[in-house]
Every structure is written in structure tokens, then in C-alpha cells.
Amino acid sequence: MVSFGGWDMPVEYSGIIQEHVATRTAVGLFDVSHIGEIEIRGPRALDLVQKVTCNNAAKLTPGQAQYSGLMTPQGTFVDDLLVHKISDTHYFLCVNASNQDKDFEHVRSHNTFGVEVENAGPRYTQLAIQGPKALGILQRFTPVALDTIRYYHFTFGKVNGVDCLIARTGYTGEDGFEIYFPPQHSEKMWNDLFEAGKPVGMVPCGLGARNTLRLEAAMCLYGHEIDDTTTVWEANLGWICRLEKGDFLGRDVLVRQKDKGLDRILVGFEIQDRLIARDGYPVFSGGTQVGRVTSGSPAPFLKKNIGMAYVPLALSAEGTPIQIGIRTSQATAQIVKIPFYKRPK
Amino acid sequence: MYPSDYRYTKEHEWIKVEGSLGTVGITDYAQHELGDVVFVELPKVGAKFAAGKAFGTVESVKAVSEIYSPASGEVTEVNASLANEPEKINKDPHGAAWMIKIKLSNAQELAVLMDAAAYEAYIAEKQKEASA
User: Fold this and answer.
1) ipTM score here?
2) Do A161 and A288 have their domain in common?
3) B62, A16: Cβ pair inside 8 Å?
């Protein structure tokens, strides 16, 4: 167990490699109750969401979710988040556990629209069921036709007799679902799902596998790839920044940075030998330090040693050789296309 | 669980002494804390280490950890099989996954190491701290 944002979280149950591979090939069950929820309600709910985030929430239809960034006035990240549109007057935001209070204060401080902002974390447990067999297992517990929920959409319905928000989202690179429900049902829900899933290879997964799975899928982790010093352009997240939506926090800075061009950008790399890059290790090119590793790990499914790092734009093309400082040596690495892993369609 | 003829360090290495030769590895507690071991870096035969100095590195999926020499001496043999089968460290840490053999230069140093009972008490205390 480790303390994570005030929660006691298991890093692993049966072992990171087994948990990771089970999620890629069968199904993993994740207790992600630590994830924070913020609910915004009122006639001008959309105006507040639009002001504090960089993606265009006006494009959402009820029952649709989008990945977005919570912006500082400098166009950097307060956090990354999922914005779920429940109705024109009700949005449900999912944020990082360790940022929940900061995010809530931030959203509230920009509430000039007279809407209700609720720090709703304590009202929800979240379980993630991820992997090619996720749908089949979860379907046994709900009358909702899960295959009708499209990727990044959600609906409300009973799971195991409990009212849930059922979203087809995840942080693993696999198909799967994230369900939100009142915490008093946590234990029974977990146990019942696990009992049903065990015969088809369901494995409980901890924070360790959650991290290696998201890294293979090249998904950003706050505090690593993104924080209040990085922008969407630098983090290769231009697709979640919709300048055309109108004004939002940090937009002017982001417009200027886009016009001026970037000094650095987030890339993926693969190490050529057996050495393993870790978070914070220096990145070199021609003997000069040019950046730092943001996340580095063995990739249990790909069986390679991979990582992400910020490097100067000139070194960001696929195939560019770089070196990673690992203890006393410099390991040879190469910029590769991300995501490292893409699930078969 | 912990062989009674081994001595143990606070950094979770073990040493088994036979004459002037010591065999060194990491403990079951250490492999369990690390999780799946995927890589190990060991010194070359002939390398000399003082007691308490790092002689190698072990990496699991989640963490990297240095391995410290329980005693001073010169490396006489390295377990080369761990390069291709690092997972042995998880399976048999006190046996097949020995890491190096050293020719001891000062057998007196061993007196400060823990015996099995002391080590078991030591890790029981660690586990209590972790769950507190």
C-alpha cells in the first residue's frame, strides 16, 4: 500500500506484469475511487466549463464525454480531466485525486456565472473494468445494452442493482468501462464483479499496472507529462485545444505560443538495449543535456523499455537518436511514434 | 523462510560464508518489495568492494534499487544466468538467484550483520510501520 493523494492504494496485487498483461488480453478490475469528481449545475453551467477548460464542451451532446485540460491563466495545466455532459445545465468533471481540492477551488474562483460547483468526490466510488473481456463481464450485471454506448459516451443505469453512471472510457488503451456509484456499494460491487470475472481471467489491478498501461498507450499523467509549466502544444495535445471556441483561461498565451512556435515537445522513445529509463533521468544529444524523462518504465506487454520526454523540436522526428543518462552510462534510444501500443480494432 | 546459516543486512542483502568465500544475494523481503524483477546489473570478476558499498543494481517494473555488499572483498564469481532470467530473483532469492561470490578480506565485519532471527524481527517491524 502507498499513500496517494490521501488514499491508501495498492501498487500491485498479484504483480504488475500479470495485471498488465491480463488487462491487454482479458480484463482488469481497478479500484479508482480516489479519482475526484466535480459537478457543475445551473443555466450557465456550459459557460463556466468553457471558461476553465481548453476543449470545446459546446460540441458535446448529452451522454458524451471529452478529454480536456483545466487551464491556468498562463495556458498551462491545473489538471487534465474528463468532461461529461449530463444535460445543458449539468456537467460532471473527473479530475486527478491529488488535484481535486486545487481543481475545485480553481473552478469555483472563476464562477462568475452564478452556477453551483460541487466537490462531489465523497459521493462517488469509481471502478474501472478494462480489457477485451470487459464488456462481456459487465453486461451480466446490467440491463443496459453496453455495446450501444459508444467510446467516450456514457449513460445512467443499474449495475448489480445499483444506480450508476456507466461510461465507455478508460486509462489503459483498452476498450472498457468506468462506473461511478455511491461508495456504500463499493465492496459488494467489487466482490461480485471479481467473482464473475475470475473464471475468464479477470485480475485486480493496482496503481503500478495502471501506470504501465497508460504509458504504453502514451496517455499523459499529471505531474509527469503535464503540469502548470507545460502547455497543450508542448504536450502534443493540440487536439484538445479548440481556439475557435471563443475565450477561455490562457487562450491568449496559447495563441501566441502557437504563432511563435515551440521550443520543446513531448515525444516517445524506445531504449535500444536493456537499460530502463525512469522518471527524471536526463536526456542527451551529442553530449549535451536536452531534456528530462517524464515517465519511463519497462513496457510489460510490448516487452520493451520505453518512456516519454520533452526534447527540442529539432530532435523530435521519429527515428532521431537520443541518449538517456542511466546511472553512470548513456543508453542509446530512438524517438518512436506514440502511442507505443494501439489495441487491435 | 530465512536460512539460519546466512547473515543479513539492513538493506536486505544476505551473505552465506564458507571458509573465506561469501555468496551474496537479496532477501525474499527485498524481492517482494520490488515486485517483478526485469533487469540486474552485476560487477565483473575481480572487482573489489568495501562493506556497505553498492556493487550492482536490480530493477523491477516499478523501481530501481542498488545492491550493497555485506562485506569487503573481491568478486570471484558472478551469477551470469540472472542476465537472461532476472525473474529467478523473485522465484528463488535465497538459492538459485545468488548474485556474486566474494573472497572476504575482513571476516570480522560479519559480526555486525543480523542473524536470521534478528532479520525476521527487523522486517516484522518494517511491515508494522508500513501498515500503520
Assistant:
1) 0.89
2) no
3) yes
